[in-house]
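Let's do one together. I've listed all components of the complex below, 661 residues spread over two lines.
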Amino acid sequence: MSAQDFLTLNHVSKVYRRNQSLLERLKKTDTGGTKAVSDVSLTVRHGETVGLVGESGCGKSTLARLVSGLMEPTSGEIAFRKDGAGRTPRLQMIFQDPYSSLNGRWTIEDIIAEPIRVHKLRRGRAAIRARVDELLTQVGLSPADAEKYPQEFSGGQRQRICIARALAGEPEFLILDEPTSALDVSVQDQILNLLRDLQKNLALTSLFITHNLSVVRIMADRIGVMYLGELVEEAPSEELFLRPRHPYTRLLIDAAPDMDTSDRSLHPIAGELPNPAFPPSGCRFHTRCPFAKDICRNTAPPQKTAGTGGMFRCHFDLELSNAQAIPPASKARTA
Amino acid sequence: MTTPLLDVRDLTVTINRDGHLITALDKVSFSVNPGEVLGIVGESGAGKSITGAAIIDLLVPPLKRTGGTITLAGERLDRLSPKAMRSVRGGRIGFIFQDPMTSLNPVISIGRQLCDTIEAHLKIGGEKTKRKALEWIERVGLPNPEVQFRRYPHQLSGGMRQRIVIALALCANPALVIADEPTTALDVSVQAHILQLMRDLHRESRASMMLITHDLGVIAKMADRVAVLYAGRVAEISTVGELFNAPKHPYTRGLIRATPMPSADGEVRLDQIPGAMPGLGAVPPGCAFNPRCFKAEGDCRAAIPPLTTEESAAFSCFHPLERETA
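Okay, and this is what the predicted structure of the assembly comes out as:
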């Protein structure tokens, strides 16, 4: 681990097993399971925001839980940089749904003060209250809101409360799991702008998980793209959008409809997402890839390093800088 | 000037909350021309879904339609008896719901659900009904129709289920299809498939469509004309090109600019609209958007701006935006 590295994931995998029957347990047969995260290696540097994108079932939320320590990886290791005293950094999470992630029976003051009390960051009622007021102001709410209950707030305001609660723990590392997916666009912007300001002012290191490519492009310094549990590409944000190296990244960028009304073509990705419990052999994307050759069906692609410091998993070095790079036949296929 | 297929005038929906009447939809007017896709866009709580539900009389109490007219091909839907309305639903008006998980009956096979709908509206008899159902399963792009016919919703993926919901909405050859957030619950790669399918089927059938969504990207690709709703009122109605390139209402422009989208040169901008949409019953006097609007003046706070028609567009704003000369 180099001095800059804040968090390293080394070949991390997580397998969800179904409950085994008594017979299976006695016979000690391995029934297998769903490999939700498969052999992911990733480094987050100090002060950096790394984005993770992918469709549902690609393992991005599982990865967030592994990093947060809510779950243990089946194999591989997750290491945080330790400070002089051997202490691991403080970590906080912001969740997708601000309606279910706040306790409705607690006042806002109780909610925000909890991490302060747990981590013993301030002593005494007055000092804690002063800190709560400060945090509320920081996220754009008023100290008067501290007496209220979560149900008195709109979705966007609740997400601000969640952010204040996360900041109350004075985290060095923040995990954001789809923090704006439940919000309307006009409110989403306010939250993204707030998060961007906080990132800048507090020098936070963070992991930003979302399915929305435009959002991650705004928020992250580097982006990892996941498909069926694997990290298929990882690159600096602008590099990923301008010069994607993996066909899935290219197709994902094109699939989201943009607001250009002059070109109304749609770009679906051929086929459907395979069942993550039974991923395809070889390259996991070969069933939907317009460039797939025999080798893709049989051999898992190696991890390659791009010239700009990015990583991708593909047998070929494809030129995918513009949307026309994808053969039109695959675009026309709709079934 | 063509006669519109669907004409909605001054549609008003109120909520009775312990005797207090709260307006959810306030005199909403728009029309859908034959063969046209009308997009209805707005944030949550703007009244998009209520508009769709009010047209087919599927409002759940305490929501109640209290005024306005709904005319489908010359017939007043708002005057129909509940029984007559039942035959319109799924017959002349097909409905695609947001969540394919809850809009299919989990204990009845796909085939049975299709046959029931076809039988109820087309009345063509057993063998023909089944053939038509199989035909529809194939048309919406599911492999092995015979196998799918016997399967249950839980055996299908989200995208496949939404295809079945689309088949159900279209199988009785409706004149109008109301699609309420048809792709919101789906992943991007699946979303593009479903939109493509809807577009293909729309071109084949020439049915009119009302596409309700909060996603401006979907609107830009699918709609011919767009109605923007804000706090239960129509802010602007315009052709899709006009709306995106020269919006008249400040809210429309705010909404477009707030959507994180990379522009052509790759730069991502993020302009926020201050504040949030007023909740039900908390709509400010005058223009509902005035507390958040950068152009708001005294008259905006005093009176509700009427829907002004100008060429192909209509907007409700006292100080519409000038066409930007860029």
